[in-house]
Amino acid sequence: MKALCSRETVIIGHAVHNDLIALRMEHHCNADSAHLFPVMDEENVTCSLKDLAMGVLKREMPNVHDSVNDARIAYLCLEEGWLKINGKPKPIVRTQKKRGGVDLFVHRIPKGCFPEHLENMFLKHTNIKPAEISPIEFNSDTGKALAVFTTADHANLAFDSISGEAKQDKTGRLQKRIYLKTGGYVCIRKNSSSKSRRLSK
Question: How far apart are CA 111 and CA 117, in angstroms?
Fold first, then answer.
C-alpha cells in the first residue's frame, strides 16, 4: 500500500481508520464516508455502510461481506451524496437500532480488529454467526460495535453460550468477558436490562 500511495493519494472507503490500523499504516489524505455524512437526530454517531447505501443510492447491501463491493459503494456514495451536492449531504437515517436482545453490545475491542474478526470470535465461542457486525467505532485505545442477530432468541443463546459468569455493569445490564490470546479481554453486553429475568433464575 505504501508503494502505491504518495502523500497526495486519496484513500476512499468507509471507516478507513480500521483498515489503516490493520495495515499499520499512517495516512492523512482520506475520504471516509463514515465521517462525512451526518446521522439524523444523532450527534457523534457514524452511520453504517448499509444505511448510507440506502440513504444515498437507494440500494440494499448484500448480506455477504464483500470488501470490493464495500469500496465501490463507499466511492459511489461520496460521488453522489457529497461531491455532486457540494459537500452538503442530507442526514442519513440510521436503521440499526435493534434493541431488547436482538443485538449484543461488544466493547473493549482492541485496535487492529475488524468486524469479521468479531464474527469469527462469536462463531468460535458460541457457534452462532451474527447477521451483521456494525462498523467498529474506536475511541482512544479500544472500540465498540454491535453484533446484530436475526432474533432475540439467537442473541440470548449466543450470550448464554459464552463461558464464564455474567455480571452486571453499572446500568444493570449483564455482560461477559471473552479473553484474548494477545492478553486482555473483550466485553459482550446485553443491551436490555436483565436484572429481574436473569437474577430470578
Answer: 11
Is the four-CA dihedral 35, 37, 43, 46 of positive or negative sign?
negative
Residues 6+ apart with CB under 8 A from 139: none
CA 81 to chain centre: 22
Helix (H, G, I), strand (E, B), or coil: what is residue 49? helix
Phi, psi of 189 (to 5 degrees): -125, 145
Q: Name the pTM for this structure.
A: 0.53
Domains, in order of start, for the chain = 11-85 (no CATH), 103-193 (3.30.70)
Q: Are strands 142-148 and 132-133 parallel, antiparallel or unpaired?
A: antiparallel
* pLDDT above 70 for 111: yes
**Band of residue 106 on the pLDDT scale cut at 50, 70, 90:** very high
Mean pLDDT of 170-184: 87
Q: What is the pLDDT of residue 193?
A: 44
Q: Has residue 67 got a pLDDT over 90?
A: no
**Phi, psi (5° rounding) for residue 104?**
-120, 135
16 vs 10: CA distance, rounded Å? 11
If one counts every other C-beta atom within 10 angstroms of the C-beta of residue 65, the result is: 14
